[in-house]
Write a structure and sequence with these properties.
four-stranded antiparallel β-sheet, four-stranded mixed β-sheet, alpha+beta
Length: 380
């Protein structure tokens, strides 16, 4: 079905993203995968191409538009290219809204120009060794010392953790923490007591640096409080819909791309003297995946349109995230199976897509959490 949510300016932006991938990402991606981290030069190049801070005001060097369709194009093209390591979506769609909606004018002047030109890479630190989706379990805490906070604790599984120059840390600012006692504190590169642990060895997305972070008596200036004191829980809930939609957009793009390359593969690959595509079982597998992708794409495009108009709610974002990521996982498994032994070889795109995509049903809120959100909305 022809997609109807994009205008000519979005198509022009898609061409820009593809050119950027061809010149600045794909020639170096294999090396980044081996290194376990991308080059900072790629971030600066993304800034020069206008791929960072699209929703940031032009006053600070951004694109000046909050049209989420540009983010959707970016996510789709990076997914199709098999290059999730350069985490522009994390920077733009997950962390960006905290800075544009919560930062003071002084903070915006300090941080947003670098955010947009690629010289300031960002991360958000929520997850702890003993606290994932459950924010009530956060132990990292900050003590008020008058003109600064003293921050102590640790975080894990932090995307961009090695490269990040600016980390939004979720910390307890009351003894009880929880829904009414968490705040967002911005920790900057070079602050005394801020240490990074090892670059974690993951099964996929090898070039996307993911780290442990440690905060040992870090003195965080009072002017680095982001948003309301003890208001982090509401701030986090407000931005989760876009985060989950962004993940879902990548998921359906991955499923569609896997279907495309597998369709071509079964047309060419022969077994018992005939192309795999001539066998009924193969045709049924392709038919099922194509139908599931088409139905999911229709729902996702509606969610993208609603979000661009400010109308997407948390429940439908959770539906999109759950369904699209589970579909991606299912399609990746079936497409790998249809590739046979070749699908298990790392040089085949389907193999990397299988491992790269497995995290999708986990981060941004697990499938189980998505179902809980949806169920509560229906049953109270």
């Amino acid at each position: 079905m022809k997609r109807q949510i994009f205008a000519p300016e979005h198509d022009a932006f898609r061409a820009t993203v593809r050119s950027f991938l061809d010149k600045e990402v794909l020639p170096y991606y294999e090396q980044w995968e081996k290194d376990g981290i991308v080059s900072r030069d790629a971030w600066r190049a993304a800034g020069k191409h206008g791929l960072l801070g699209m929703a940031v005001s032009e006053e600070y060097g951004g694109g000046g538009t909050d049209d989420f369709r540009y983010s959707a194009v970016l996510a789709e093209e990076f997914t199709r290219a098999g290059a999730p390591g350069l985490a522009l979506g994390l920077h733009n769609d997950i962390i960006g809204p905290y800075l544009t909606s919560l930062a003071t004018d002084e903070q915006k002047r300090r941080w947003l120009p670098g955010f947009c030109d690629g010289s300031l890479i960002t991360a958000i630190a929520m997850t702890e060794p003993g606290a994932g989706s459950d924010l009530q379990g956060i132990r990292t805490h900050a003590e008020d010392r008058g003109d600064h906070w003293v921050l102590n604790g640790s975080k894990t599984f932090i995307s961009n953790g090695i490269l990040a120059d600016l980390v939004i840390v979720v910390a307890k600012t009351t003894p009880e923490g929880g829904a009414h006692g968490l705040s967002l504190l911005v920790v900057e590169r070079g602050m005394d007591g801020f240490e990074r642990g090892r670059n974690l060895d993951k099964i996929g997305q090898k070039s996307q640096d993911t780290a442990e972070l440690f905060f040992n008596d870090v003195q965080v200036p009072k002017e680095n409080l982001l948003g309301e004191l003890n208001g982090a829980f509401i701030h986090l809930m407000t931005n989760l819909a876009q985060e989950r939609l962004s993940i879902a957009v990548s998921a359906i793009a991955a499923a569609e791309h896997l279907l495309e390359i597998t369709t071509e593969y079964v047309k060419e690959r022969e077994a018992f003297g005939r192309a795999l595509a001539t066998k009924q079982h193969i045709r049924f597998e392709i038919a099922e995946m194509a139908t599931e992708c088409a139905v999911t794409r229709t729902f996702l495009d509606r969610c993208i349109e609603d979000h661009s108009n400010g109308e997407l709610d948390a429940v439908h974002a959770s539906m999109a995230k759950w369904w699209a990521t589970e579909l991606q996982k299912r399609v990746a498994d079936r497409c790998l199976q249809l590739h046979g032994g070749y699908g298990y070889m790392s040089e085949y795109p389907v193999a990397r897509a299988f491992t790269d995509g497995r995290i999708q049903t986990i981060y941004g809120g697990t499938t189980e959490i998505m179902k809980e959100i949806i169920g509560r909305s229906l049953l109270g």
